[in-house]
Structure formats: structure tokens, C-alpha cells
Amino acid sequence: EEEEEEEGQKTPVQNGSALPPGMSPEEEEEEDEERLPPTSPSETSHQSEFRVDNNHLLLLMIHVFRENEEQLFKMVKMSTGHMEGNLQPLYLLLTDCYIYLLRKGAAEKPYTVEEAVSYNELDYISVGMDQQTVMLVCTNRRRQFLLDTADHSLTEWFLCALQSAMVKGCREPPYPSVLTDATMERLALTKFVAQESHCEVSEVCIQLYSLVHWEDPMDVSLGPQAGLYGSPDTSVTKEGPLMYRVGTSYLGKELWKSCYLVLSNGILYQYPERTDVIPLLSINMGGEQCGGCRRANTIERPHSFQVILSERPPLELSANSEQDMADWMQYLCQSVSKGVVPPGVAPAPCLACCLVLTDKWLFTCHQDCQTSFFRELGGAELAHIRGVRLEGQREYCIIEFVEDRRQFLPPWVLYFSCCGERDRLLQALEEAWRHIYQVSLPRLPLQDTSVQKKCGDALSLLKSVWQRSDSLHRGRAQREPWC
Known about the structure:
This protein is α+β, with helices and mostly antiparallel strands and about 475 residues long. It is built from 8 helices and 25 strands.
């Protein structure tokens, strides 16, 4: 007993853990600080996180939360439809019970709960290429939700925050696994690049994949650089027969009728027949009454999509084929992106799209993840790049091309979610360009103040989707989003 007592005195206990012989409690505390894990997500923040005050929390408790004692953990800005060119703003809420996906609502109810995913129904999480997207997959495989982050740092932060929310909340171990290889997405993209660059699949080397906004050079004048951002062409025209949903029978079956749609000068007209002159409906695609379009996954009819309307239920349409649906969505999205311009802000024909960098090419494209279908928007050989212009720590860059090539290509203006994503492209582009020319890629300062203003206005326009249009110029830009 005396020996055990002496042994116990040799190993003092501090806070329930044994200290090594000869180490004081103060030294142990210093060592603990060195061994501490990284700061938890509950203690860190991200630029895409929205800080919720008490008034806003009360709003969420009234209009969003399902449980009486539900506790808010995080609220973060994300989006959907970026890859298809149909970016729809979305707020994601993490509580101790649910993941909420919120859309813009009416004035009396600023949020519409699109989905509420219980932690217990979450099966696994799939991370897209270069951590640009996150897909939440439930045990019921019909419930899959693809979210755009367009920022690898936001993806990493969100995964940590989600893990922390489940640990502190209602989910019991084991926790959902996280898949990060994106094998099928990378394979489909590699095949697309091989086809567009006229080479074998084995020769494709993808250096970078990013979700960006791109100023389509075909929509701007071919004049001097100050005119890069000319007025957009709003005369996008498309017409053809489609089916539209008129309602649901008393047995719950969807009812559809044929119609004839005409998109002209930014206005969508719906006629009963091609020969009719009085439309059933007319929608200003660039006005406040339209919030864009998106694929309708919950509708029974194939090749369906929705035109989102602010003051009435969405217009649900169905095309004859996947290709026809993709064409309509592209034209509609272009009309929306060219027309939504708040007062006092210069327009810019920006398209939400995917940016793909290989060792020889730079592509912009739209991507349908459900069908692995890619549509090229633009392509340029790296050998034709002359340099990159930057404006300090602004979230955009201008890629300039040589002028002695056979067909003149106007500069590309690329907008990013953050400077980290911009710098990620610059680093990858620098390495690929150096491999071709054995010298550094020229980085030039942007000194033209008119171009700086145009690009700054375009950035403001892209960020304005997180406030209601009437909040921007009435001193309310810093208030709750969509309130």
C-alpha cells in the first residue's frame, strides 16, 4: 500500500489526465495548447456566412424552423444551377435538427423553405471537382440536392460546420461519409474536352475547374478595350411548341396542355396555338416579375423545367427532348442575365458557367450533371494568351489575347466568388503558360478607370441578388437578405 501511495505521488493528476513525471501543471497547460485541434467551425467564420441578429433569428423561428426548441447553428450563402447557367440564390441553414434550403419569398414572408433535410436521413455527401459543389444524398435516393459553393474554401468550411452541427445536434454516429474523388464528373469532363480540342482522351490533362461568371465576348463590341462591356443584345429570339402544366386532377394526376412559346426582346409570350395573336401570358424576363428558370426534378413529365415568377406560381413547361429543354433554358437564362439591372448600375452580359483549364486550352461551358451533357460557350488556346490584367484585390481578371491570330478574339472578363478562386486560376494558368513559353505569364495592372468602373458595377450587380432590388438604393443594402 505504501508503494502504491508513493507511485501515486510521482504521477500527479491535472484535470483528469496524468502528467508525465517532472512536468508541472503549468507546463502541461502549455503543451495542451500546442496539441489543440484547429478552431471549430462554431468559432470561425467565412465571408459567405450571414451573421444572424436577434430580429432576424425571430424571423427564422416564425417562418422557417419546424421544432419549437430548434437552435440555429449557421446561415450561409450558396446557390444552385450555376453549372447550367441558371444561377438561383439560396440560403442554407444549419440547425441542431435540419438542413434548410431557403429561397426568396414574398414581402410578408421573405423566405420560402424549398427543402428541409433531417440529419438522420442524410446518407452521404459528394464533393464535386475542385471542391466547387456539394451534393447532399439522402437514404431515399430521390432526395439529392446539388449545391454550388464556387469556392473551395467555402466547401471545406461548410463540411466542417455540417459535421459540427450533426455532432452537437440530433444525429447519432456513424456520421455520413464524404466522397471527394468526383470520378464520374471528371471522366465526363475529360471526354468533353477531348472532343472539343480534337485529341484523344488519354492526352487530356485538366488543370483547373471553377464556377465563374463570364462576359461573353460575342455580346460585346469589337472596339477598343474601353468598349469591352457594350450594351447587351436583348433581341434573343426563340420560339416553338411546348407543353405546360395547367394543374392537377382530383386524383392527383398532373394535367398538361400544348402551347406555343415565343421569346423576343427579353419578353416571353405564351400562346395557345402558333396562329394565335393574343397571348395567355407575357413575362418580362429581365424584370422583377421573373426570377430565372430551373430544371423541375419533382415533376413526373420528362424534360421539364420551371420559369420562376415572383407574384404567382412558377410556369411549368415540358420540352420534347433533353436537347430542346437545354436550348430553352439557355435562351431564357441569357434573357434574365441581360435584363436584370438595378437602377444606376451599368449592365454587363455575364453568364454563370464552368471554367475549364487544360495544359493547352481554356474553355467555358454549361454542364448538366444529371445527363453529363456539356455545351461549349467559348474556347481559346493558351498559346494565344498575351497576358492577364488585374485590379488589386478585386474578384475578377481580364485575359487578353494576341492580335496577330487569324481570327481576332476579344478579351475575356472572368468574375469569381472571391479573390482566392481568382488566384487559384492565375496560379494554374501561370504554370500551364510557363510550360509553353518557358517564361512567366505577364500580369498587367488595369489602369483604365472606365473599365474599372464597368467591372466594379458588374461585381455589384452579381452580388445584388442577395438583396431585394428595392433595398439597394434606399440605404438598406446591409439589412437582412431579401427583407
